[in-house]
Design goal:
Elements (H helix, E strand, L loop, with lengths): L4 E9 L2 E6 L2 E7 L1 H11 L4 E5 L11 H8 L6 E4 L5 H10 L3 E4 L1 H5 L2 H10 L4 E10 L2 E6 L4 E6 H11 L3 E6 L11 H10 L4 E4 L5 H9 L5 E4 L1 H4 L5 H10 L11
Parallel strand pairs: 1-4, 1-12, 4-5, 5-6, 6-7, 7-10, 10-11, 11-12
Antiparallel strand pairs: 1-2, 2-3, 7-8, 8-9
Length: about 260
Amino acid sequence: MLAKRIIPCLDIKDGRTVKGVNFVALRDAGDPVEQAKIYSNQGADELVFLDISATNEKRKTLRELVRKIAAQINIPFTVGGGISSSEDVSKLLLSGADKISINSAAVRNPKLVDELSKKFGSQCITVAIDAKLIKGEWIVYLNGGRISTALKLFDWAKELNDRGAGEILFTSMDHDGTKAGFACDALYQLSEQLSIPIIASGGAGTMSHFKDVFENGKADAALAASIFHYNEIAIPDLKDYLKKENIIIRNYPTT
């Protein structure tokens, strides 16, 4: 079994970390540079930075902020928001990102996934999927959850797998910010159908939710935001708990 990963997520708007519920009602959650440094020091396995309004505002990711964060951390760093070309990816990698995350751009131009994976390597390409359960079907949404599509989660995820995506970051919009647990049924289906890693996002509220998403959702990694930003759960404590529950986790401190 591959070791599971714990990933804090910085949702960025106007240069600040924000967090909401079901993708709305955003509130300030702190300075992203300081938070990134803390998470790196606490033993987070990776860090995800999502410029959540870049696509909707038709602008590029905040590269200067990416540089500042990259200078403060020593863990893998994924950056997303407003990425739509190889040039965008090159600039972000040069700014300090280790991986990039695309979402809306992949839906609008699926061949972009093929292009990026061939040019930069699949291991560098994360494709994020935001989806909501509508009348029993998981439907894909774009632009930070603002625009619905005709795509269905499992079909789209399989296509991304086949096009060369390195991993899928699946966020359940229904679970986002609720702290009621992850969408484990959907995650389990994804893990059964795909050959690439699945990052679970949306719904983390307790340590047991992480155990559940790894054991029952079969996720390879779990991403969370508000519980870390507001000091409700500390990453070292979470890793201690998971180790005691016999879940293999990455970067477990030995001292």
